[in-house]
Structures are given as structure tokens and as C-alpha cells.
Design brief:
The complex is a heterodimer of chains A (about 270) and B (about 110).
Chain A lengths: L1 H24 L6 H21 L1 H10 L1 H31 L7 H39 L4 H26 L3 H29 L22 H10 L7 H29 L3
Helix pairs in contact in A: 1-5, 1-6, 1-7, 1-8, 2-5, 3-4, 4-5, 4-7, 4-9, 7-8, 7-9
Chain B lengths: L1 H18 L10 E7 L2 E3 L2 E4 L5 E7 L5 E5 L4 E5 L4 E6 L5 E7 L6 E6 L1
Parallel strand pairs in B: 1-4, 3-9
Antiparallel strand pairs in B: 1-2, 4-7, 5-6, 5-8, 8-9
The chains are: A mainly alpha (about 270), B alpha+beta (about 110).
């Protein structure tokens, strides 16, 4: 029972932490809950499909289908997070209520909420397929006792609860600062996802450069320990990063910071002449 | 209905695979690994170093498994009764730890030489 609890809990928080950060980052966007629920439903449906066709997907592209699918899902999520932060550095203040002339923000907020919906869907799709396989196996095999099934359900509940606590923790930050905090979290989140995508492309043989390992910190924080897994979900920690992963990580941060500066400056220019 | 859906999805996947280019039927060594409810067989998986090979993993048990190695940066979840493969492009000679992420006590080593 403990084993099933731990596995379910672990898989849920990996997607749950991403969702809670994205939710906190879009506080104040009108009508977002509809998009959030759509993203969750779409992600779960996608995860079910991926689990159902796991073998077919694996066999595609000469055995690299799963790697290529994972990379594609992650790249979509990264691009949308980059766009989100760029947009936020222009409209964040309006949403925080400092400027109540929120007309433009509200109108483009709908698009922003749609992007958020896709990020949530991608996070669930990426992490959820394994959980679906695991849970389906528990139910379908018929050999697992009620205690194991209870453990798995309790694990999902605990994972959802921890994600909710994270969200409310972030949401309790005063609105003047909340978007600064979530912007920083999202920069590291996106960089970590981009580095993972790079590794999937390397595994698939699409990218074949900078494959050597930069360092090995598995003795300090092992990637499959609890701190390692949490750091992996939040900032993309890996205990043996390749040079390619390091490069992609740093480049993603650089691109996001530059775009955010540019967008904020653009905003100042737009306000001043009035 | 679900069968129709399944067939449509398979067709879509096949089309995608076909569009990606002709599937190369080149020979590469296939190394078989069996996973069964918390046991990984063989306990020492011998694979060739510095060449392409395919690790064919079968879940012959009653519960789902996830073949994983943080050192190799690979993972693959398998439902009970299913078989799937991981293709390695090249692997430096050495010893790598692998485990079953759904059965925390199941461990094995992969030796490339």
C-alpha cells in the first residue's frame, strides 16, 4: 500500500507543481477557470491515449516515437511559458490591480488563458501517461488488493493536496509581488523543461552534439531521491547533465530575460507619451 | 466506437511514421530484458558499447513496470503483458544502474563493453 501511495503521489506532484505555479502566475485573468478545467480534461484524455497506444508510439520513428512525442510536448510548453512571461512583464501590473485601465489586458487575457490551458494539458500529458498505466494496471490485473488501490487513490489525493497548498501559498503573496515571484519560477521551470526536451531529442538521435556529461552530483542530491525529484519538477534538476542540457538551460533563461526586458521597456514607451 | 477510434489513431500514427521517411531496416543487435512484478532479468544486462542496439523490454508480470536509469537518462513504462524497445545510438563502455520505478526494490546493472 505504501509503495502504491508513493508512486501515485510522486507522479501527481510532478505535474501538480507545474500547474500550481502556472495558476498563481495567471491570477486575475478573467474567465481562466474554464480554460484551466479544459486543460486538465484535455491533458487527462491525452495521457489516456498515450497510455493506450504506448507500444505503437514507441515503435514509431524507428523506436524513437516516445522520445520525439515527449520532446514535442515539452517544446510546446516551453514556448508558451516564454510567451506567458513576455506578456506578463507588460500586463502584470494591470492584473495586479495597480492600473485599473485593464481593457487591453482583459482582451488579450483570453488568449493568455488559452495558452495556460495548453501548458497545463502538456504537463498532465507528459506525466500522466505513466500514472494512467500504473493505475490501470492496478485495477486491470485483479491481483492487487483493496489496500493497494486505496494507497494509489490516497497518493493521488495527497499529491493534489500538496499542489493546492503550493498554489495557495503562492497566491497569498501580496499582489504587488506575486507576478515577480511566479515569473522567476516560470523562467527556471521553462529552462528545466527545455533541457529535458533537449535530452529526449538526443535520445532519439535527432541531436547528436555535446553529449558529454558536465558533472555528476548524484552523491550530493540523487535525482531519484525526494529532494532530487522535487528540484527536477521545479527547476529541471538533473544529477548528470550533458553539455547540451546545460547550454539549452542557460540559453532559455537568457532568451526569456531579454524578451521580458524588451516587453517591459515597450510598455514604458507606450505609457510615457500619453 | 472505441475500436474505430483506436484504428483511426493507429492509421494516423502509421501515416506520421511513413511521412517521417522510409523505415531503415538496418540490422542492430537486440538485447532482451524481462521484467516481472519486481524482478529484472537478467540481473546483469550485457550490451555492446559504442554501437547502435535495441533493448527489448517485456513485462511478463501481472503489474505495470517502469524501466528506468537516471545514469542513462532513459525511462519506459510498460503495462502488464506488453513489450517495447529503447534504441540506444551509442553508449560508452561502463556499468550503469537500472531500476523499476514502480517496484522500488527491483534493481539490475547494465554493462556496456
Amino acid at each position: 500500500m505504501i509503495g502504491a501511495f508513493v508512486i501515485a503521489f510522486r507522479e501527481v506532484i510532478e505535474a501538480g507543481l507545474i500547474i500550481s505555479i502556472v495558476l498563481a502566475a495567471t491570477r486575475g485573468i478573467p474567465g481562466r477557470m474554464r480554460w484551466v478545467l479544459l486543460g486538465i480534461a484535455g491533458g487527462l484524455a491525452g495521457a489516456g491515449l498515450v497510455a493506450l497506444f504506448a507500444e505503437k508510439i514507441s515503435d514509431a520513428f524507428e523506436g524513437s516515437g516516445q522520445d520525439i512525442l515527449n520532446a514535442a510536448v515539452l517544446i510546446v510548453a516551453v514556448l508558451l511559458l516564454v510567451w506567458h512571461n513576455t506578456w506578463m512583464s507588460k500586463h502584470g501590473k494591470e492584473l495586479a490591480g495597480e492600473l485599473r485601465a485593464a481593457g487591453a489586458a482583459v482582451r488579450s487575457g483570453e488568449r493568455e488563458a488559452a495558452a495556460l490551458s495548453i501548458v497545463i494539458g502538456a504537463a498532465i500529458l507528459r506525466e500522466g501517461a505513466e500514472l494512467v498505466l500504473f493505475l490501470y494496471g492496478l485495477v486491470a490485473s485483479g491481483t492487487s488488493g483493496a489496500d493497494i488501490q486505496f494507497g494509489a487513490v490516497a497518493g493521488i489525493g495527497a499529491g493534489a493536496l500538496l499542489s493546492a497548498v503550493t498554489y495557495f501559498g503562492l497566491a497569498s503573496i501580496p499582489s504587488r509581488y506575486v507576478f515577480s515571484v511566479t515569473s522567476v519560477l516560470i523562467i527556471f521551470l521553462a529552462a528545466g523543461l527545455a533541457a529535458q526536451a533537449a535530452q529526449f531529442l538526443a535520445n532519439a538521435g535527432v541531436v547528436d552534439v555535446l553529449g558529454h556529461t558536465l558533472w555528476n552530483s548524484s552523491g550530493v542530491i540523487a535525482e531519484n531521491s525526494w529532494p532530487g525529484r522535487i528540484l527536477h519538477a521545479l527547476v529541471g534538476y538533473t544529477d548528470r547533465p550533458t553539455a547540451l542540457q546545460g547550454l539549452v538551460y542557460v540559453a532559455t533563461i537568457a532568451v526569456m530575460v531579454v524578451l521580458m526586458q524588451w516587453s517591459a521597456a515597450d510598455k514604458r514607451r507606450a505609457v510615457r507619451p500619453a | 466506437m472505441s475500436r474505430l477510434l483506436r484504428r483511426a489513431a493507429i492509421a494516423a500514427l502509421l501515416l506520421t511514421a511513413a511521412a517521417a521517411g522510409p523505415v531503415r531496416a538496418d540490422e542492430m543487435p537486440v538485447i532482451k530484458v524481462e521484467m516481472r512484478d519486481g524482478v529484472i532479468l537478467p540481473a546483469v544486462i550485457e550490451v555492446p558499447a559504442n554501437t547502435r542496439f535495441k533493448l527489448e523490454i517485456s513485462n511478463t508480470g501481472q503489474s505495470p513496470v517502469e524501466f528506468e536509469s537516471t545514469e542513462l537518462k532513459r525511462e519506459k513504462a510498460l503495462a502488464a503483458g506488453s513489450t517495447s524497445a529503447i534504441v540506444f545510438r551509442t553508449l560508452d563502455a561502463g556499468t550503469y544502474q537500472v531500476f523499476d520505478d514502480f517496484h522500488p526494490d527491483a534493481k539490475a546493472t547494465l554493462v556496456a563493453k
